């Protein structure tokens, strides 16, 4: 390279740098993963069909589906496919309802948000939601019972 003029050496170096940069970019380019297709917090999409979800079992750790935060259980893949096609999983996990309440939410989404008919899968989705995201009893603890009280002495 000693025989080439300085300008040509700079040009060849810049070209080599560009080629290496493009190669690195192509190497690290990947297909979108499931976490890329699930809406982010607060994101709403106008989906026309459920998501394709495969291999979610490998994404469960300590009973939680890591990308969504959903509790692992029967019906999880249906809930991911149908619910996160349009909105963040947090819209599910922040709510609590019994089976009737979840069914009302589904009907509301079908009437106002263009949610498709869930067909035979609706029962399994309602089972999952009512089991894992049911109302939680909160408030004061129950009164103490069967206590042997004693007198304080001065």
What does this entry look like structurally?
The structure is a single chain. This protein has about 150 residues and is mainly alpha-helical. It is built from 6 helices and 3 strands. The chain has helices at about 5-30, 35, 75-85, 90-95, 100-110, 120-130; strands spanning about 60, 65, 70. It has a 3-stranded antiparallel beta sheet with strand order 1-2-3, with no helix packed on it. The protein is elongated and about 105 Å long. The model has no long low-confidence stretch (mean pLDDT about 85).
Strand tally is 3
How much is the average pLDDT? 83
What order do the SSEs take from the amino end to the carboxyl end, as H and E? HHEEEHHHH
Beta-strand fraction estimate: under 5%
Q: Which bin fits the share of residues in helices?
A: 40-55%
Main-sheet strand order equals 1-2-3
Structural class by helix and strand composition: mainly alpha
Any idea what the shape is?
elongated
Q: Total helix count?
A: 6
């Amino acid at each position: 390279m000693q025989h080439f003029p300085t300008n040509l050496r700079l040009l060849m170096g810049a070209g080599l740098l560009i080629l290496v940069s493009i190669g690195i970019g192509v190497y690290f380019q990947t297909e979108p993963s499931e976490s890329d297709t699930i809406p982010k917090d607060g994101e709403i999409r106008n989906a026309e069909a459920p998501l394709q979800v495969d291999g979610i079992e490998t994404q469960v750790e300590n009973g939680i589906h890591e990308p969504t935060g959903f509790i692992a259980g029967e019906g999880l893949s249906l809930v991911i496919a149908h619910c996160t096609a349009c909105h963040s999983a947090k819209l599910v996990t922040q709510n609590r309802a019994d089976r009737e309440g979840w069914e009302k939410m589904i009907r509301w989404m079908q009437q106002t948000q263009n949610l498709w008919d869930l067909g035979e899968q609706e029962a399994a989705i309602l089972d999952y939601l009512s089991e894992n995201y049911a109302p939680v009893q909160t408030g004061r603890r129950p009164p103490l019972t069967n206590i042997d009280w004693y007198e304080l002495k001065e």
